[in-house]
Specification:
Layout: H1 5-9, H2 15-42, H3 47-64, E1 72-73, H4 79-110, H5 122-145, H6 157-166, H7 173-192, H8 198-212, H9 220-224, H10 241-273, H11 279-295, E2 302-303, H12 305-313, H13 320-340, H14 345-359, H15 365-370, H16 374-389, H17 392-410
Antiparallel strand pairs: 1-2
């Protein structure tokens, strides 16, 4: 079924439920604002692209999606692939790859590809998620410690670690204090007030300390200049046959990540609200959202598990919450863009370090290593290592192929009756 959940839930809405969705939307927007900025910066893009993605893609995912409470936008899972595409093909190449991924997802929605998530082995998903979290953490350590790396330092782990070691003399104690302060505040506020949007409060407090005490710490404005106060006009990227072929692998990876993460998020949301999402409508919505985001110069987008959970805890129960969330971010962008320039870079790095830690789900590490089949553990570790040391495309390709082969072998499929040809 491709019918958006909004059309199903809207006739049942009451003034009370709409107000509850509005409050949830405001709460999620306060969480999404600093995250969207930090994700864009970590991806190698301009910070405003994160806001554009949260506004445009977040609106379209809620408008057309198959989940009652899904919140869409830029996520940490895309940082690695986005950074790689920008480094290799430029930002215009990323825009075209995102547009292609959106078209692939739209086709997938009509072909009912949302039902295929069950075929992706769980160890592969866990492996590349932990690997991506490790890469995010590694990429944020320089900003969190105030390091100055040489321009053009690669994101590859094997080359970045030696570069960080060589730059150890540039470490700033003030930056470390601000980064640690943000981490401590985020964790403390989350535990003390789990329904409160503590992310923006924590980042705001330590950034205010930087301004009040004139600390020698890099800020958003100092590095990127002023943020725009409006959305850009839609624009098509440069499209040629050669570029389409060149960017197809990246587009497939973006489509795969968007589809997998959105459906995983929708399944988590189902358990929280005792609902049932429409997977093919969700895939279609992800496609439309990525097309819309790319045309507006944004980043790839998908359903965000943490923001979706925040929405549910804040009382959101229909897609209106996601639409309100996008509207609030747009309002903040239009009215308070200059204030974002005071945000401290180590604080945003600390935010992403917490995000990476949560993304890796450390509470499950023991279970990964002690339960289940040995082959599943090997598959998880292999996918994780390939993600960190090789390439996300290779990691997913090898992981899925091996996972499906293991699944077939466990079904006791007899070998084919094959006779070598007589040459």
């Amino acid at each position: 079924m491709l019918t958006p959940k909004l059309l199903t839930t809207l006739p049942q809405s009451t003034p009370k439920s709409v107000f509850a969705d509005f409050i949830a939307g405001v709460t999620v927007a306060m969480v999404a604002l600093p995250l969207s900025l930090a994700i864009a910066i970590a991806s190698g893009a301009a910070p405003e692209t994160g806001l554009v993605t949260a506004i445009v893609a977040g609106f379209l995912i809620s408008l057309f999606g198959g989940s009652r409470v899904q919140i869409g936008g830029p996520t940490g899972a895309f940082i690695v692939v986005v950074h790689g595409v920008i480094a290799t093909h430029g930002f215009d190449g990323l825009v075209l790859a995102t547009l292609m991924a959106g078209v692939i997802l739209v086709i997938g929605g009509f072909l009912k590809a949302g039902n295929l998530i069950a075929l992706v082995p769980e160890p592969v998903i866990n492996g590349f998620t932990i690997g991506i979290a490790a890469i995010i953490a590694l990429s944020q350590l320089p900003d969190a410690m105030g390091m100055t790396l040489p321009e053009g330092t690669p994101a590859d782990a094997l080359e970045r670690i030696p570069a960080m070691w060589d730059a150890r003399s540039t470490v700033s104690l003030a930056s470390i204090a601000i980064g640690l302060g943000a981490i401590v505040l985020i964790v403390a506020l989350r535990r003390l007030f789990p329904r409160f949007p503590g992310l923006i409060v924590a980042v705001g407090i330590v950034s205010a300390a930087v301004a009040v005490f004139a600390l020698p710490v890099d800020t958003l404005f100092g590095r990127f200049g002023a943020l725009p106060d409006r959305l850009p006009l839609p624009r098509l990227p440069d499209i040629t046959a050669a570029r389409l072929v060149e960017l197809l692998p990246s587009a497939l990876i973006i489509a795969f990540l968007a589809g997998i993460e959105s459906l995983l998020s929708a399944m988590v949301a189902d358990r929280m609200v005792a609902g049932r999402h429409r997977p093919n409508a969700e895939i279609l919505a992800q496609g439309l959202a990525n097309i819309g985001s790319s045309l507006m110069g944004g980043l790839p987008a998908t359903g965000a598990i943490a923001r979706t959970a925040t929405n549910v805890r804040a009382g959101g129960r229909t897609p209106l919450a996601g639409i309100f969330h996008a509207a609030v971010i747009l309002g903040v962008m239009m009215l308070a863009a200059p204030m974002a320039g005071y945000l401290a870079m180590p604080a945003l790095a600390g935010l992403l370090l917490v995000t990476a830690w949560n993304m890796s789900e450390p509470q499950h590490w023991r279970g990964y290593l002690t339960t289940g089949r040995v082959s599943d553990r090997v598959l998880l570790v292999l996918t994780m290592v390939l993600t960190v040391l090789a390439d996300l495309t290779v990691a997913i390709g090898v992981g899925v192929a091996l996972g499906l082969a293991l699944r077939l072998s466990r079904r006791g499929v007899p070998p084919a009756d094959w006779t070598p040809p007589d040459r």
